[in-house]
Amino acid sequence: MVDVNDQIKEEDDGATLQNDESCKNGTCDMDLILDIPLDVTVELGKVKMPVNELLQLGQGSVIELSKQVGEPLDIYVNNKLVAKGEVVILDEKFGIRVTDIINPTERVKSLA
After folding, report:
1. Which CATH number describes the domain made up of 34-111?
2. pTM for the model
């Protein structure tokens, strides 16, 4: 009779062996996650306005945002703040130059 615990241990040993093979010299193979798509968003600013103001907007209306000119913009990856940056223009398109990476401790604090 085969013990269920023995089968589980054998399966676990196989998984450990596979994990050890993909991690060499303390570095793991990152190829498994490199193709996962992430949403990157740059926030130019925010504003809250009542519905009646929103309904009065039309073509040519200007909405004043919360950020000041020259103030770093927030860069989010999957809705998590990860960096700050500044606007650049590349071949007639907008881009963002990363100027500051949010340290991991601050990112964890923002989750709470």
Report:
1. 2.30.330.10
2. 0.65
